[in-house]
Amino acid sequence: MTALATLRIARPAVAAFAAMGVLWGSFAADLPDIKTMLDIDESHLGALMFMTPIAAVCAMLVAPRLGVAFGRRAMLISCLLMCVAFTLPGQFSHLMLFPLAMMACGAGTGLTDVLMNARVATLETQSGRPLMNLCHAAYSFGYAGGAIATGVLRSAGWSPAWVLCSMAAMAGLIALAAYEKDGRIEGLARPKGKGAAHLGLVPVIGGAMVLIAFLTENAAENWSALHIEKNLGGSPSDGAMGPAVMAITMGVARLFGQGLASRIPAVWLLTGGAVIAAVGALAAALAVTPAMAYAGFIVMGIGSSVIAPTVFSLVGQLSDPAARARAVARATLIGYFGYFFGPPAIGFIAGHFGLRFAFVCAAVMLAGIPVLARVLLRR
Q1: Interatomic CA distance for residues 4 and 229, integer angstroms
Q2: How far apart are CA 133 and CA 273, in angstroms?
C-alpha cells in the first residue's frame, strides 16, 4: 500500500490530530504573553493550569458514552467543540475566570483525544496497517505550525486574545477534514453481563507508559519557550522556536516510526526512545544558549516520538477485539494524566527549583518506560 493510500485511510483521524496540535502549539508558544497578561509567576500559572486536567479527566470518563451518543459524527463534533474552547483563554485576564477557560480547553481536548485514538485503533483493525505513528506525526506537525505562526503573530504585537482566536479558526478549518460518512467507533459501548466490561491490566500498564511519555513531552513543549526566553535570554521568536523545533522533530521521527513499527520489536523501540529522550532532556537542562536548547529538544523529540504511538498500538493489539476501543480509551485516560498534569507539575517544580531542575526530573521519569514495556509484553 502506498503512502498516499495510507494517508487516505487515516485522513479523518489525521485531521483531528493536526487540529489539536495547532491549538496546543499556539497555546505553548503564547504562554509567555499569557503569563504577562495574568501578571503572575510560573508557580501560580502552573496552579491555574491544574484546572485543565481536572476537566479533561472528567471529559475522558464520559467520552465513550458521548461517542455513542454523537454517533457517526462523534470525532468531528468533538474537534469543533475543542476549537471553540481555545478561543477563551486569551479573553479572560482575570485570575478567577482564566481557570474556567482552561477547563473548557481541557474538556474539549480530553473528549477529542479519546475518540480520535479509538478511531485510529478501529482504522488499524479495518485496514491491517499501523496508522498510529502517522496520526501522531500529524499532531506534531500541527503543533509546530501553530507554534511558529504564533511566534510571528507575537512578534507583530498581537495580544493573546487575537492570537488564540486566529489559531482556533485555523484549527477549525483543519478539523472539517475529519468529516466522514460513517465515523462510528465500534467497541465504545459498555457490554452487559457479569465481568463483560472488565478490561484487565493491559490498558493500565500501557496507560502508565503513555503517562510518563506525555508528561515529559508536553511539559517540555509547554515550558520550552519560557526556558529559552527567561533563562537563556532569547527573544519571543526564539522562544516560539523551542516547542516548534521539538514538534517538527517529533513529526519527522514519527513518519520514520511508521515504518520502524513493523520492523523493530516494540520493546526495543520503546527502550531506545526513552533513553534518547532522557539524553535530550538533560541537554536542554544544561543548555546555556538557545541553540544548545534547540539541540536538546531535537534529541528529546526523536526519542519521545515513538513511545506513545507504539504503546497505543500495543494496547489495541493485546486487548480483546470486542473491547479494543474501550481499552484504548482507558489507556488514553491514564496516559493523559501526564499530558495535562505535566505542564502544571513542571511549573510547580520550576517555581521552586527552576526550569533546569524540572527538565532533569523529566529525564529521570523516562527510566520507567523500559521496565513497563517488558511488563506489558509479558501480560
Answers
A1: 40
A2: 13
324 touches 313 (CB < 8 A): no
**Secondary structure of 92-159 in HEC code, one letter for each residue:** CCCCCCHHHHHHHHHHHHHHHHHHHHHHHHHHHHHHCCCCHHHHHHHHHHHHHHHHHHHHHHHHCCCC
Who contacts 276 (Cβ-Cβ below 8 Å, separation ≥6)? 299, 300, 302, 303
Rounded distance between C-alpha atoms, residue 73 and residue 93, angstroms? 34
Cα 14–chain centre separation: 14
Contact 207, 332 (CB under 8 A): yes
Please list the alpha-helical segments (H only) found in 192-323. Answer: 202-226, 236-260, 266-286, 290-304, 307-318
Label residue 193 by pLDDT band (50, 70, 90).
Answer: low
Question: Which tens digits make up the pLDDT trace of 316-358?
Answer: 778 777 777 778 888 888 887 776 666 677 777 777 777 788 7
d(CA 355, CA 351): 8
DSSP 288: S
Task: In whole angstroms, give the CA distance from residue 201 to residue 274.
Answer: 22
- The tens digit of pLDDT for each residue in 287-303 reads 888 888 888 888 888 88
